[in-house]
Write a structure and sequence with these properties.
The structure holds 2 protein chains of 2 kinds. By secondary structure, chain A is α+β, with helices and mostly antiparallel strands. Chain A contains 5 helices and 5 strands; from the N terminus they run ββαβββαααα. Chain A folds into 2 domains: 76 residues, Beta-grasp domain (Ubiquitin-like (UB roll), Roll), CATH 3.10.20.30; 66 residues, [2Fe-2S]-binding domain (DNA polymerase, domain 1). Classes of the chains: A alpha+beta, B alpha+beta.
Amino acid sequence: MRELIKLRVNGQEREVMVEPRQTLLDTLRYDLGLTGTKEGCGDGNCGSCTVLLDGQVVNSCLVFAIEVDGQEITTIEGLYQGEKLHPLQQAFIDEGAVQCGFCTPGMILTAKALLDSNPHPTEAQVRQAIAGNLCRCTGYDKIVRAILKVATA
Amino acid sequence: MSEYSVVGKRVNRVDALAKVTGRALYAADINLPNMVHGKVLWSPCAHARIRRLNVAKARALKGVMAVITAADVPGKKNEEEHPNPMTCCLAREKVIFAGQPVAAVAAINPYIAEEALRLIEVDYEELTPVVDVLEAMKPDAPIIHPNVDTENLPVKDTKPSNIFWYMKNSRGDVEAGFREADIVLENTFRTQTVSHGYLEPRAAVVSVDPEGKVTVWSDNQGIFELRELVAGFMNLPLNYVKVIPVEIGGAFGGKSHQVVSPLCALLSQKTGRPVKMVMTREEVFKTQRPAPASVITIKMGATKDGCLTAASATMIYDYGALYGMGGMDIVPFGSFSGLNPYRIPNLKIECYDVYTNKAPSGPYRAPTAAQAAFAVESQMDLLARALGMDPLEFRLKNVAAEGDTMVTGTPFPKIGFKETLERMREYLAQRGNLEGENRGRGVACGFWAPASGAAGANINVNADGTVTLVVGSVDVSGTRTSLAQIVAEELGIPFENVSAVTGDTETAPFSVLSAGSMITRSLAPPVCQACQDVKDQLCRKAAQQLKVKREDVEFAHGRVQVKGMPEKYVSLADLARGIAHFPGESPITGRGSCKGLKQSPVLAVEVADVEVDKETGKVKVLSYVAAQDVGLAINPTLVEGQIQGAVAQGIGWALSENYIFHKGVMQNATLLDYRMPTATDVPFVDTLLVEVSFDASPFGIRGVGEPPIVPSLATIANAIHSATGVRLKELPMTPEAILNSIKTQGKSKTR
């Protein structure tokens, strides 16, 4: 039994038919074509599928689409809509914080949620905030530096 | 490096913008019209005979488009017993590891495909799995591959064995060497099976058109290797398979082979529709070629004044049920890399590669070298302690130099081993000693010789003076950026005027697999050759325009000028415009094609400061510094990033990552239970880039990606010893293992 839900995704109203078992991640990737959100594990342990749900960090692989009917979702595509990069996106480029790029969307969204609630975090707070987002390429060094750069700017 | 204007500069990665905006496309992001979804049925048993395999019920399920088993495979049907990963895509009669593909399904959606798997009936007759590597080596052990003899033995084996590779390197007289020594130590070290841990699970989309032509989008480290694999499986000529590169979400050697693309190709042929497969994390862990476990016994002797006299080692690698990763055989590199940093007159190293009924192994960042270095460098630390010498000074005293003999018998070319150690010594002198209770500092070295391979490069000069470089190498480490820097440097044009792209197998010149720390070094020669070709063509055209002889013009700073009269010139952009606007002018296309360079020996030296909690056994890495001879850093930011990433992987390998097996089946196949370092587990990693030029390479580059993981395991073990006074000889060094060692080896050291 599919049901119609309404989501506000990156500032736009979207209506979509979903199966009850369908995750928010699959809905974003397959029904809405927002493939910037990645699936690294499917069980909430890697953070690649991080999106912001009403401003809060969630693993979209652990959320059923049907649960979030009517809520506001920000994906990586929402941070740049053709005009200006988000300062975190620019910092990730400038600091060399991007390697394979698979963790990058989730990492940037987690960092955004951190800076939205705590604009001047310490290094330890940054590391704690992104501890749910695994990265295997960078050793986190340049990622932490990129986030701290925006935090102190 | 001031002598270059673009090479050596920290330009931003060319792929970074697409990645921070979520626009970069990975295999799982590709969706085609009319596409269906595939799933694989994997063997749950480590060793079993397949008595019966019935797919009728699965085929009958509504929404299922095709079900395939070994009986449907068109190519190489008679080789299923041969232990070649290329042909082992679907089991026939027997399964030799848990996670071996038995059947595959295509259905209109992934849910139905999964349901269909549950309807496939397989009757397994379980056989005793051979899970312990030392048991597997015994003459009476059950044989996993009945038709395999040990390769490389001095005397040919008379019966099959689970030992599939033997290698011996020796020089001098080790017994005499040990007699000369004042101190001789012997220890056995063990390392565990570990995963590459790339974040992107394996994925493929494959479309077979009505003419039988196959198009593949997948995450392989080599488009040409994948083409060969799919063509072999499908029994097709190479020009019937086209592989289109996509962004790759981490690889580290683990994406050198493929299971999903060949299966998707066959399913696509059967269904007449494009087929997509995306692995789960559990499937990645259980089926995707982790790094082999090892048991290494090493004996080393030194004189009182700290000179190494002899070393002997027995290295055993547990490869699981298959070796290699499609077209790339595993040489036990560790057998000669481990002792290569040092000048040791008498040596004997024996290496055994062994099959067990566990997940097949494959190359992981400096394959088998980190395991060997864990043993050698732990042993070096114990020797330094026994001698009462500083561990860094002990290494400096014995470090190999140009002209010394490598383990393999050939002399070292120009190397920067000493310079790298000295750079670390300077750094530590500035930083000072580590203070505090339960804290310790560890140092270790790691040798690796980045490889090089055959590759071509094409450069097209566009009508506005920009240029496009087309290569066939997949970019797994930022090579599009470094190669674009080389083109800009060689042609004297701005970096922004160069785009570097990986073409597909129909449009790009051949390139070696993106592995072995070798892409920038393998592609730099053909790229430079293609640039020279462009310059020659531009000079000929410019000479005509300037009405002088060809030999009277030269290429400099992005323009062609008359020799001795730099004010008389034509710019690259003007020449390019001329080509576009005048019919009859031939386009400028530069071409390069090279066979590869000699290996470039590299030493990495790393130092960790750790603190060990005596109550819990937990290790906190306080700081970490990695020095490495890179020859020349084309882009220091990218080089640092490679080193920092490798160190984090090494810290995980040392402290927490582990395949836990029960009867040959992995028990902890999630990212919660297989614990990779998070941002809270690693510190900032300082990098010291040493630049001792390797003369055979353009710009003196040596290769970067693999060496920095080689010393990390021992660096951490040596630091833990400094902090606690106990020596751990087995990985991972979990809190539990550390507490047990403190209990059994005596009281914790305070300093």
